[in-house]
């Protein structure tokens, strides 16, 4: 049984101008011990999927799903109690995720205290050892600091240490490297890989960056317009992508373009989140679109554990 | 280190403010269209009497010399004598200032303790009944005239329920039958120094209604400001992150969001403290509270300038000190303040 088992999840947020379909139909299976990347453009529903797992969707949002399970428990009922105990969050922008007016010691201590009944000194020692586990060189000094006194990479390590402090074994990492420069981002990814190996964690990695998928993930799911359109082992998704959208994403990578040539871009933009979509959401932008694409929902293509939704026959991929 | 430098900087600035006000008070005393010598000489003075008073008050000396004398006297706490009562102003202040400070400190504390938690709860329950009720209450608290609230409180707590005294600082059973030895003139402190628990309780009881009356306005404003600041902070990512980390809701509200949202409320509380020092005349009259407000308003009507100057100086110093405390509190709550 996968740790995360989501089948046909949708999240819609009622607004005066009609419902916003933040997530239309996402299916996601995450096995224990893997780093599972979820990739897509802004507005494709990747962050909202993570927030739904945490039970932190906006007020009034409606969640429907055929299955929405964490370790066999229904997240619709249990998200509140699982959050922070079994499910942790590593936020996008570490500078914003840390409270600017509280010392790191206070912020670490609050998390440890919320989950474990330890005396003060033991909590302090635990905080220091968690910070050390994230590769921070001088934990005592970091504990005495305020967020604005730390660099972005250090802040992100503190955020990771906080997530570890909850004792959660499943972490949702929402664009953990976006706010960092490339080399620091690579260090943070290496750290996450190490923690997964050492502590048996499972990570849902939300990103818009194919390099992050290639560098850190075991499996990946591609989202487009609130739907999961492709999922599989990273090698398969990167090397033999099934969905035309995944191919377009890969072609848009700077490395894919010959030196000196113009970078490829995906023409058009994602469908507005309020509209209804009859067929394949990518059809209007797809270079290989056929008349059937806009009219009917695409069937599932399967190649081992690699699956995608497309009207094109499997061998065309 | 940053904090110490910050505090030092604020202290130097405060000193400048005090010196500036001293100068201003002196200048104003020179330009008011009333002759201090004539006032000092008493009713219907003769020309000789006025001339004598002029010499006695040293009014013929050149301006800079008089400023030096004035500033020196202020600095040493020698406020001179009242033109009207011929009493030493310093003596008067020793009696009136503690009463006023008691009231100002207590009402400010009450405003903080009532306004800020209510603002937090209203923000947490935004749009639901605790918020509606709190908002209604804060509007009432701000809008209700002081004298009306004072009389309402007297009616309910003194007249109907009879659990709190109507007015005054101490009951007659204490002030006349068994008076406290006067040490600081703070009734509560004197009671404690004398080891008189009965007098202490009595002093606190007398303080409740006037302090509540004075606290009403700043509490209402602090509640509104805290509410709006909290609503903004609760949207921030670090609050979402704190939720995701499994922190309890009260911990998030009071331990994480509130320290980010206290700035505006603290500022208003500081201003209302200054107001309570001399602006509380109505409250002092209704509750027969022997405070600075009444003292100075009588002096103003009598053009008793030394008293006005002395009260201005004392109030300035109290206010500057309070502001300094608030600045330090802000810097303690938010370490980034010391950096700016």
UniProtKB/TrEMBL annotation, chain A:
One of its GO terms (molecular function) is ATP binding. It is a peripheral membrane protein. GO terms for biological process: peptide transport; transmembrane transport. One of its GO terms (cellular component) is plasma membrane. Signal peptide: none annotated. Residues 4-250 form the ABC transporter domain. Its main location: membrane. CDD domains: ABC_NikE_OppD_transporters (cd03257). It is found in: Cell inner membrane. Pfam families: ABC_tran, oligo_HPY. Gene3D superfamilies: P-loop containing nucleotide triphosphate hydrolases (3.40.50.300). Keywords: ATP-binding, Cell membrane, Membrane, Nucleotide-binding, Transport. PROSITE patterns: ABC_TRANSPORTER_1 (PS00211), ABC_TRANSPORTER_2 (PS50893). Belongs to the ABC transporter superfamily. PANTHER family: DIPEPTIDE TRANSPORT ATP-BINDING PROTEIN DPPD, OLIGOPEPTIDE TRANSPORT ATP-BINDING PROTEIN APPD. This is Oligopeptide/dipeptide ABC transporter ATP-binding protein. It comes from Shinella fusca.
UniProtKB/TrEMBL annotation, chain B:
The chain crosses the membrane at residues 12-32, 103-124, 136-162, 174-195, 265-287, 307-326. It comes from the Bacteria. Keywords: Cell membrane, Membrane, Transmembrane, Transmembrane helix, Transport. It holds the Pfam family BPD_transp_1. GO terms for cellular component: plasma membrane. Signal peptide: none annotated. GO terms for biological process: transmembrane transport. PANTHER family: DIPEPTIDE TRANSPORT SYSTEM PERMEASE PROTEIN DPPB-RELATED. This is Peptide/nickel transport system permease protein. The lineage of its organism: Bacteria, Pseudomonadati, Pseudomonadota, Alphaproteobacteria, Hyphomicrobiales.
């Amino acid at each position: 049984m996968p740790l995360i088992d989501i089948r046909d999840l949708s999240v819609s947020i009622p607004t005066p101008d009609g419902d916003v379909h933040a997530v239309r139909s996402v299916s996601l299976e995450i096995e224990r011990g893997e780093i599972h990347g979820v990739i897509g453009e802004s507005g494709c529903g990747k962050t909202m999927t993570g927030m739904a797992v945490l039970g932190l969707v906006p007020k009034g949002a409606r969640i429907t799903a055929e299955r929405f399970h964490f370790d066999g428990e229904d997240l619709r009922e249990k998200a509140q109690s699982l959050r922070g105990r079994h499910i942790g969050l590593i936020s996008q922008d570490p500078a914003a995720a840390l409270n600017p007016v509280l010392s790191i010691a206070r912020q670490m201590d609050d998390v440890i205290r919320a989950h474990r009944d330890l005396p003060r000194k033991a909590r302090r020692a635990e905080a220091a050892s968690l910070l050390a586990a994230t590769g921070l060189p001088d934990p005592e000094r970091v504990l005495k600091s305020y967020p604005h006194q730390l660099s972005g990479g250090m802040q992100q390590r503190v955020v990771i240490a906080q997530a570890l402090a909850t004792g959660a074994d499943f972490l949702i990492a929402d664009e953990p490297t976006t706010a960092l420069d490339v080399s620091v981002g690579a260090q943070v990814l290496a750290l996450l890989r190490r923690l997964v190996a050492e502590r048996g964690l499972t990570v849902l990695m939300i990103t818009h960056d194919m390099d992050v998928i290639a560098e850190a993930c075991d499996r990946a799911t591609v989202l487009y317009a609130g739907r999961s359109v492709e999922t599989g082992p990273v090698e398969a998704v990167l090397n033999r992508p099934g969905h035309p959208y995944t191919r377009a994403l890969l072609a848009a990578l700077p490395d894919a373009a010959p030196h000196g040539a113009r970078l490829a871009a995906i023409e058009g933009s994602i469908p507005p989140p309020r509209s209804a979509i009859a067929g394949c959401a990518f059809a209007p932008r797809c270079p290989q679109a056929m008349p059937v694409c806009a009219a009917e929902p695409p069937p599932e293509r399967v190649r081992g554990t690699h699956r995608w939704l497309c009207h094109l026959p499997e061998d065309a991929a | 280190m940053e904090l110490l430098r910050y505090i030092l900087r604020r202290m130097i600035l405060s000193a400048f403010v005090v010196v500036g006000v001293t100068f201003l008070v002196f200048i104003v005393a020179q330009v008011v269209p009333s002759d201090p010598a004539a006032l000092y000489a008493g009713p219907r003075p003769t020309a000789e009497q006025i001339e004598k008073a002029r010499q006695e008050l040293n009014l013929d000396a050149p301006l800079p010399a008089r400023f030096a004398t004035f500033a020196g006297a202020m600095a040493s706490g020698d406020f001179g004598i009242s033109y009207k009562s011929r009493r030493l102003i310093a003596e008067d202040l020793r009696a009136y200032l503690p009463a006023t400070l008691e009231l100002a400190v207590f009402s400010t504390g009450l405003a903080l303790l009532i306004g800020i938690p209510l603002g937090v709860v209203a923000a947490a329950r935004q749009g639901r009944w605790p918020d509606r009720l709190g908002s209604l209450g804060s509007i009432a608290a701000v809008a209700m005239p002081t004298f009306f609230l004072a009389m309402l409180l007297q009616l309910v707590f003194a007249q109907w329920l009879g659990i709190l005294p109507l007015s005054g600082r101490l009951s007659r059973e204490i002030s006349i039958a068994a008076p406290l030895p006067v040490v600081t003139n703070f009734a509560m402190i004197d009671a404690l120094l004398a080891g008189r628990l009965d007098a202490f309780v009595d002093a606190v009881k007398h303080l409740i209604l006037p302090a509540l009356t004075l606290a009403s306005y700043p509490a209402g404003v602090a509640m509104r400001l805290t509410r709006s600041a909290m609503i903004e902070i609760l949207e921030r990512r670090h609050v979402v992150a704190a939720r995701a980390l499994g922190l309890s809701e009260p911990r998030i509200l009071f331990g994480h969001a509130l320290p980010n949202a206290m700035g505006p409320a603290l500022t208003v509380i500081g201003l209302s403290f200054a107001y309570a020092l001399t602006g509380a005349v109505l409250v002092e009259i209704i509750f027969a509270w022997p405070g600075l407000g009444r003292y100075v308003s009588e002096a103003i009507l009598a053009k008793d300038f030394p008293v006005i100057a002395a009260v201005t100086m004392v109030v300035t110093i109290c206010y500057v000190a309070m502001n300094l405390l608030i600045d330090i509190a802000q810097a303690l709550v938010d370490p980034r303040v010391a950096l700016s």
